[in-house]
């Protein structure tokens, strides 16, 4: 059974790059959350649970899950310092030969 979403301009989602920012989210607290462009300090356990549920949902619909960390060859340690990577569509542009990651705040 195929479920259609969006408009006729888009086809079924087949692959997606996900990143679990669990470690990086530990940088955010009640004093600095707005500096990282968050509305409040995140509940990390709730975030992780929702992330795993989202990943499971995508898999149930046959979407192939790719991990962002598998595509970062240089400066891989930066992934644990960028909590905003949770919202990759807001801060990155994916190109045919890689990605441009913008510095949204820090």
Model description:
- The protein is α+β, with helices and mostly antiparallel strands and 106 residues long.
- It has one domain (17-101).
- The chain is 24% helix and 15% strand.
- It is built from three helices and four strands, in the order βααβαββ.
- The strands form two sheets. Strands 1-2 form a two-stranded parallel ribbon. It has a two-stranded antiparallel sheet with strand order 3-4.
- Strand 3 and strand 4 (98-101) form a beta hairpin.
- The chain is globular, with a radius of gyration of 15 Å.
- The mean pLDDT is 81.
Please describe the topology of this protein.
Blueprint: E1 15-18, H1 22-25, H2 44-60, E2 64-67, H3 88-91, E3 92-95, E4 98-101
Parallel strand pairs: 1-2
Antiparallel strand pairs: 3-4
Which descriptors apply to this entry?
106 residues; alpha+beta; two-stranded parallel sheet; 3 helices; 4 strands; 15% strand
What's this, in brief?
By secondary structure, the chain is an alpha+beta fold. The protein has helices spanning 22-25, 44-60, 88-91, and strands spanning 15-18, 64-67, 92-95, 98-101.
The coarse silhouette is globular
Name the beta content range.
15-25%
Average pLDDT metric: 81
Roughly how many Å apart are the termini?
Answer: 44 Å
Structural domains: how many: 1
User: What can be said about the biggest beta sheet?
Assistant: 2 strands, parallel
Give the topology string: H per helix, E per strand. Answer: EHHEHEE
Low-confidence runs: none
Q: Give the strand line-up of the largest sheet.
A: 1-2
Which structural class fits the helix and strand makeup? alpha+beta
């Amino acid at each position: 059974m195929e479920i259609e979403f969006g408009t006729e301009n888009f086809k079924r989602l087949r692959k997606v790059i996900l990143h679990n920012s669990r470690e990086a989210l530990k940088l955010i607290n009640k004093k600095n959350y707005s500096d990282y462009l968050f509305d409040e300090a995140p509940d990390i356990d709730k975030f992780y649970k929702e992330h795993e549920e989202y990943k499971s949902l995508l898999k149930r619909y046959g979407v192939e899950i790719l991990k962002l960390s598998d595509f970062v060859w240089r400066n891989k340690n930066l992934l644990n310092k960028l909590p905003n990577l949770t919202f990759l569509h807001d801060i990155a542009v994916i190109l045919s030969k890689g990605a441009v990651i913008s510095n949204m705040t820090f």
